[in-house]
């Protein structure tokens, strides 16, 4: 589905959508428990995949259509052998988290996904499961899905690289809590996207599970039970999604844009507030109230590392296209292994809009002084974050911009186009 966006100004208030990262973990944690009520959950294509996996393991997830909360009946730390293949769709988080769950099953689990997910690396997690005594393989022998996992593992010590995906560590910590022995993880390389492991540890604590940093990496004791206080969990707002709303205000604000539901948490992507401040944006974060206010500003290019915040690269690249001078995004190699190669995708698609960039293996530089945003036909590459970032660029481009694949925002921000429309964006969605 295409969306066509005309140059627009934005103003008014918006409610931050719920966090996708927290929702994934909360649904699975409730599955590991006897059950829980999960409030303010994001119900998107990705999180529905995790809910489907919980159901496949013997749990059940039901959504209240009136208020959106999820009632999860869990499998009490003892997942059953799935009756069918688990389809993780396009969700890398689902596949990594539930691959570790599969290692607890007294039997065999098969996991697959769409073409994009079947191209993403899973090898280090499969090797870790084998080192823990399970069986785990890629059917094609290339470390990519479809995956076949046979358990159960009882825990132990294992080493794993930290520079491919932090989701491997999160997956093993969540599963390790209900093993007999627990799991100790030694990192072979420096951990990238570290805040996402902190998110996992935060969610585990809210479900009554202790996990910790160690000198070598991370550890979680075995024999624990998932049991949230009062049997419920509340999902915070999502800073990855908030980044697009703040970027819209910074580049196209007619008056102040106010984002509510932006409370502090372990989310690394809250760094977008600091990044915008460094670029010269007029932005105020009232943390106790969970409110961020931002106005259109003259932005300056900066250097910023996305080592711990890979999901922000598309947003930062778009801001750089509007800013004066160069915006140099570093430590970005792992961003190439998302739904698409986001480094190349942003370079190519912004290039169609008249933006000059320099792409290297681990970095992307946007040359704002040499760029002039013009409306164009661009491709969202089947990636929700590429689609939303290009939509922000379209607000200040000369002429109309048509983005192919607008439906992919359903992965993390199903109401994105409706929300920016309410803020004043002139857009038209096709069939």
TrEMBL record:
**Is Transcription tagged as a keyword?**
no
The lineage's top-level taxon is Archaea
Q: Which keywords annotate this record?
A: Amino-acid biosynthesis, Aromatic amino acid biosynthesis, Cytoplasm, Transferase
Binding annotation for 3-phosphoshikimate: 20-21, 25, 165-167, 193, 311, 338
Q: Name one GO molecular function term.
A: 3-phosphoshikimate 1-carboxyvinyltransferase activity
Q: Where do the annotations place phosphoenolpyruvate binding?
A: 20, 92, 120, 167, 342, 385
> A GO biological process this protein is involved in?
aromatic amino acid family biosynthetic process
Involved pathway(s): Metabolic intermediate biosynthesis; chorismate biosynthesis; chorismate from D-erythrose 4-phosphate and phosphoenolpyruvate: step 6/7
List, from the UniProt record, the residues annotated as the active site of this protein: 311 (proton acceptor)
What residues does the Enolpyruvate transferase domain cover? Answer: 7-418
Quaternary structure annotation from Swiss-Prot or TrEMBL:
Monomer.
| Biological function | Catalyzes the transfer of the enolpyruvyl moiety of phosphoenolpyruvate (PEP) to the 5-hydroxyl of shikimate-3-phosphate (S3P) to produce enolpyruvyl shikimate-3-phosphate and inorganic phosphate.
> What is the protein name for this chain?
3-phosphoshikimate 1-carboxyvinyltransferase
Origin species, per record, is Natronoglomus mannanivorans
- As recorded in Swiss-Prot or TrEMBL, the protein's gene is named aroA
């Amino acid at each position: 589905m295409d969306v066509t966006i005309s140059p627009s100004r934005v103003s008014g208030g918006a409610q931050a959508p719920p966090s996708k990262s927290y929702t994934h973990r909360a649904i699975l944690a409730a599955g590991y428990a006897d059950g829980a009520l999960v409030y303010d959950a994001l119900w998107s294509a990705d999180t529905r995949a995790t809910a489907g996996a919980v159901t496949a393991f013997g749990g059940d997830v039901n959504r209240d259509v009136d208020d959106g909360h999820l009632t999860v009946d869990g499998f009490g730390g003892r997942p059953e052998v799935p009756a069918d293949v688990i389809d993780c769709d396009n969700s890398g988080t689902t596949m990594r988290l539930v691959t570790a769950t599969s290692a607890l099953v007294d039997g065999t689990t098969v996991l697959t996904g769409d073409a994009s997910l079947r191209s993403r690396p899973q090898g280090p997690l499969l090797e870790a499961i084998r080192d823990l005594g399970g069986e785990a393989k890629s059917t094609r022998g290339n470390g990519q899905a479809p995956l076949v996992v046979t358990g159960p593992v009882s825990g132990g010590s294992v080493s794993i690289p930290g520079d491919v995906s932090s989701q491997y560590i999160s997956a093993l910590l969540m599963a390790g809590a209900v093993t007999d022995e627990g799991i100790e993880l030694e990192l072979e390389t420096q951990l990238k996207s570290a805040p996402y492991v902190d998110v996992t540890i935060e969610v585990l604590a809210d479900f009554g599970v202790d996990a910790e940093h160690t000198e070598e990496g991370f550890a979680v004791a075995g024999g624990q039970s998932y049991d949230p206080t009062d049997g419920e969990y509340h999902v915070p707002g999502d800073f990855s999604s908030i980044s697009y709303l703040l970027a819209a205000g910074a580049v196209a604000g007619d008056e102040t844009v106010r984002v509510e539901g932006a409370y502090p948490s372990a989310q690394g992507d809250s760094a977008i507030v600091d990044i915008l401040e460094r670029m010269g944006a007029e932005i105020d974060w009232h943390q106790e109230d969970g409110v961020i206010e931002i106005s259109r500003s003259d932005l300056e290019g900066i250097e910023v590392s996305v080592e711990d915040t890979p999901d922000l690269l598309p947003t930062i690249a778009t801001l750089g296209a509007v800013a004066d001078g160069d915006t140099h995004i570093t430590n970005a190699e792992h961003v190439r292994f998302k739904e698409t190669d986001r480094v190349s995708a942003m370079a190519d698609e912004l290039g169609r809009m008249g933006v000059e960039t320099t792409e290297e293996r681990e970095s992307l530089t946007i040359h704002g002084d040499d760029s002039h945003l013009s409306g164009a036909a661009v491709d969202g590459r089947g990636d929700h974050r590429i689609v939303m970032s290009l939509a922000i660029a379209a607000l200040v481009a000369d002429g109309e911009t048509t983005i192919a694949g607008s439906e992919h925002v359903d992965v993390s921000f199903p109401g994105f186009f409706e929300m920016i429309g309410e803020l004043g964006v002139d857009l038209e969605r096709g069939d």
